[in-house]
Amino acid sequence: MKLQPLAAAIALAMPVAGYAQLEEIIVTAERRAASELATAISVEVFTQAQLNLDRLQTVDDLQNMTPNLTVNYQGFTIQSVNIRGVGNAVGNPNIQPGVVVMKDGMIAGETVVIQQNFLDVESIEILRGPQGTFVGQASTGGAVVINAARPNFDGINGWIETRMGDYADAKLAGAINLPLTENVSTRFAFNNETRDSYYNNNLVHEQGPPTYWETGIHPGNIDSQNFRASILFQPHDRLSVLGRAEFNSIWSDSDAPYQPNTRRYINPNDPTGFGQSQYFAYSESQLSGTPHDPYTLAHNVRDGHMESVTNLFSLDVTYDFQNGIQFNSRTGYQDNDLRTTGDTDATRATAHHWRIDVGPDNDYYNHEFTLLSPGGGRMSWIVGTSWYHRFTPVQVATDRWNVPCGYQAQGGVINECLLEDDRPHQRVMADVYTIQRHAGLFGQLTYDISDTFELEFGARQSWDNNINYLRVHVMVDIPPEGGGFPCSDPEFIRPQPFDEYICINPVTFDNSYSKFKEDEPTWKIGLNWTPGDDHFIYGFYSRGYKSGGVDGGSTFLNEIVDHYEFGYKATLLDGRMQVQAATFYMDYQKMQQEAFLIQTTPGLLSNDDGIVNIGDSTIDGIELEVDAQFGGFGLNFGAGLVNSSLGGITTVDGRLLDQSIVSPQGNWRRGCQPGEADGTFGDGDAFPCFDYVGSVGFVNLASSDNLFSPNFSWNISIDYAIELSNGATVRPRMSYSYADAAFSSLFQADNFFRTDERELTNVSISYERDAWAAYLFCNNCADEAYITSAVNTVPSRVVYNPPRTAGVRFRYDFE
Length: 815
Fold this sequence. Notes:
single chain; 22-stranded antiparallel β-barrel; five-stranded mixed sheet
């Protein structure tokens, strides 16, 4: 399709009130401020006005307006970001994200601390493709850069907004800029939101104290608070010092509104030929004989909750030397504390509950120093160094009542699960400590070969030093023959009293302490061509990587990607239309994926969500974005296409094996070594080995689609500004987004681990006059219900999207 004739036709058809041009957007994707349309990278930028117009409040919302961006949403606990099908599908502290989320320059090195609402954001930049030069180890897919609004010296100014909607949704947010002197200014921002759950929990106990099988929880509700204070010291034009302190908390009654996966999978061991989720027989629809309702749950966790506290502190210093060289220093500290409980079986069955604590000292440290050459010459350069440190302590408590119960794959039978019981018969406490340290030296050189051609070269040398430590207690409420061990252990991350339990293993059971050290060079070389003031063409080759590490005593290696990209950016029709197009090809080596990890070392256990390297893989695709403004008519359009073919892997499909092979803490039994008979006990084993290689679950996989990677996605937003005689503006706006279905697991012979295709329609109408604005809005107006996340382990659970919601907003901007 030729865009220029199409754009001209649209322009002629639309009434033009005055001369409307799109504003130039400035980005800092490569540490130097530059126009979005002259930056040699595929980037999507959201300004504060755009975020407000489309009610984009969290990272999860961005996928509805960004081609080739998906967010694996598993409630408030896990939200992993994938760009072009690359990112992280694992909620595991030992693996790095793949798409790094940076908040005011600070790296969020996990998937569990990015769920907060956006707070007084100036802009968000979504960078597609490996960011091997400036970010380094955690950005093979790209980066999401969130930039908060800075204090200014333009007097007292700011905004305040309130929102009310169904499900008792209530929000109050705002920001105020307060200059103190001609050299010091401050800015304060806040957000407070409460909302009831979109889901109905049939096991809510309304009278008397809750029991293990009747609760008072409403999974999916929310109580969120955010506050930030910023201070800017600028004694003269060459020096600025910016300090920020931000405090975030979010509460919900459960880690996620899970329910059992209702789909069936191919199982030749079952007489019907198909298997089911382990606890599906105890779901609400099966027990009551009624049709399945996506918004009806049955969670029976007595003390269900999800509490996340994240505090960030940063200091940015910029100094311009007299010769034009600029020095930047960015230092940050982030403290996280997450406590969550969940009903793992997500049914009336009293079978399997868990508690996960990430913290209390889940701490990140970021440092970066850069030097930038003066602009305006034929050659420019950037050099810098960075350092990152993350310490993540995790404690997992798993409670089981009777094992095994539920669906047993090898015979297709269902073992009875208890529906009521007083307390768990088995309890497992696992402590996991992860330390990740990264250091890097980087630089980029840009040289103008001529007035229209520019050569760009960047490189980075990275060093990684990662540590993993695991310690497990297994406890029972009835002492076994021969007695046991005291369960009280003050070295636990959060010590717990266990007077009623006896440990059946020493503290060192499943104990592993492992290190991973590696260094990796990455680079980028590109050629840019500016044939005219309104056209920009670029092409580059780059290499990116994601650091390896250790998971449960097993080492996985660095993930390497060679990336090729060509792009075109243009301003058309006298500034009323902007077009961006890109095509890319990625060649992956040792891609890290979640798969069944067979441990054959005595004393260790296997894991169905371990981290492994798979064979060589390829990903390719295209992107197109069009923004236009013709008088009062506005248009935003984006589309993306991704094809992938993953390399081979030999693994185990746990769905085809009985739950009797699962240990009390939810791990699978150790795999038998070559020549070792099935059922053999080795030194340090608490459970006998199992011959996975000879089992029906042992499979070879190749050419799978990449996970959480829809083949096709597109979005469109249109609005029209109607000017009234009193000076006010009425603006109706409609947004529609679509994404193909995608897999959440490497097992793709059936649709069991598949998320649904997504169709989302949002509508709003605003009345704007002077500094005031009122909005009526509807989200998911068609009331579409679809699976937005499918947990790819046993037992399989799913999460459905929010239903249709509506409400009203009021906003006042003052200056």
